[in-house]
Amino acid sequence: MSIAASMRVTLAAALAIAFSAAAQAGPTLDKVKQAGTLACGVSTGVVGFSNPDNQGNYTGLDVDVCKALAAALFGDASKVKYVPLSAQQRFTALQSGEVDLLSRNTTWTLLRDTQLGLNFAPVTYYDGQGFMVAKKLGVKSAKELDGATVCVQPGTTTELNLADFFRANKISFKPVVIEKLDEVESAFFSGRCDAYTTDASGLAGTRVSKAPNPDDYVILPEIISKEPLAPAVRQGDDEWNDIVRWVVYALIEAEERGITSKNLDDMVKSDDPNVKRLLGVTPGMGKALGLDEKWAYNEVKAVGNYGEIFDRNVGKDSPLKLARGLNALWTHGGLMYAMPIR
User: Domains of the chain, with CATH numbers?
Assistant: First the structure.
């Protein structure tokens, strides 16, 4: 055999091994399948994102990501065990394997991505940090908060951004640091703090659901940070990382292609090759992920496309009534953009 022929054989063998490895399930997928349920880390209660009712039933945008993943894995969105985690508990719970996925209004940052051993899936909500105050204070801008007491949760990017903002504007503040979300909200509404700071979406949810009278409070106009909120998984399991990533992309792609939970069964008859690949009519995408070919069909059937999820939980059909803004599709001036599913 010539050297060139030998090299071709070696390359072919290497490619065969690579493709074989790609088709094998990673340890997290094996664990989840064996358990028959997905352990999903969520918040202890953020309206619009992950919030339990009196019976312990969770709803929200982050919750729907958990449901979408369960539907893609099992064909059943109910196969989720929700694990409520505080800001300080969340990363340890993921690192230790207590949860398989962290879908908990968590900001993707460089240090979290590198030093905490995490991988982030695509952003599911582009947010930014803001401030809420009582109207009676007469404050119109965050730059007028010199000397204010500010309620904030520890172990968050919020706490760091707060210090950066006041330092950059050469004004002072006194932090009131409280770990539990319900306690920090209670402290603010009881008047213990002049201002409360967190992601703007969280402020909107707190104002609507927790304020004694929402009209007595105002969210100030400044957005002082970038808060790309994204699900996270552990590093070291590429197969699981791929699955979570593409489950999120499929929700965005479905909206772009006009596929909804209501027209799904009509769309499987589409002649559009992009739609046929996404919905498993043309096979191959499911096999590449180690999932059933109807993985994306099942998740959209269960929770809808990204637009449906947004509108239901935080948008026009929700109490929050948040505008799509940066979370609109890229075709409508937003940042939501799915990688090609092909």
Answer: 12-126+229-332 (3.40.190.10), 129-225 (3.40.190.10)
